[in-house]
Amino acid sequence: MAEIQIREGKAPFKVSSVDEPCFTYYKIVGDLSSGTTPVIVVHGGPGAGHEYLLTFADLWRDYGLPVVFYDQIGCASSTHLPQKAGDRSFWQEQLFQDELDNLVDHLELRRGFHLLGQSWGGMLGSAFAARRPPGLRRLVLASALASKELASRGTHLLRDQMPLNMRQALNEAEQKGDYDSLAYKDALDFFYRKHVCRTDPFPSAELLPALKNLSEDTTVYRTMNGPSPLTADGSLNEWTVISRLPEITAPTLVYNGEYDTSHDLAQVPFFELIPRVRWIIFPGGGHMCHLEGGGLRERILKVVGEFLAQKETADNMQ
């Protein structure tokens, strides 16, 4: 079993339209000099921070794969930019692509790395992979979305399955622009428990940091997504990676849960257009399969670990 090693740091990140110095916080579990390809884990939200994905730290323990976690700019332990709240032109995909490129170079990983993106992290990861960045070996898209339009269609299908009174509360909140009513919060709680994380009780220790990050600084999530997963009106509304998917040459694993907020509709383009791809739907799973019980957490780690640890051959090297 690989010895657990943890190293933290900050990568300076120059943002052209920001006068103050910025940085990206990162945490490395394992030894980057071990000779095995490290895995960079890209969190969702946007703005959730890395903590809820620490399940994947076990890739080092179980498969000897070093794991790099990081907090994207604007949230958690990286530089916060509250002065950019509501600036839709600033909070765009390119900013986060630049940050990821900067982190790869800072950690000197161009010799080879895997990428695992969850939710929004998978959206960013698929766009990043489509550029064929030097060093990218394998890609995991965990509960990701190929486009916001398909995501919205999937969300509406899930909304249609909710009790009538909850649907009415959602519609009323959106019409009034008031998302603080008890009825809206009850509907949101129902949605979270059925589709986001299906473990009861919630795995608070793992999820609490993400919820805290999202609630204490709403700059990134509110600007890019909207007031909630059920009400999206942010800068990502027109986002799509579909036309870029055929450019991804890295072998790719796509997965989502049976009840996932990342509906099957939003996975189909990944499966149809990425040249070398495998798609798995985990029965009984929600958006946070990697935190869920009933053996799901263990199955996710096994599938991801075995995919990333496969022997690398010349035809899958970048």
From TrEMBL:
Domain AB hydrolase-1 intervals: 38-293
Domain of life: Eukaryota
Hydrolase keyword on record: yes
Annotated Pfam families: Abhydrolase_1 (PF00561)
InterPro entries: AB_hydrolase_1, AB_hydrolase_fold, Carboxylesterase_BioH, Peptidase_S33, Pro_imino_pep
Keywords: Hydrolase
Family per similarity comment: Belongs to the peptidase S33 family.
NCBIfam families: pro_imino_pep_2 (TIGR01250)
Name of this chain's protein: Proline-specific peptidase
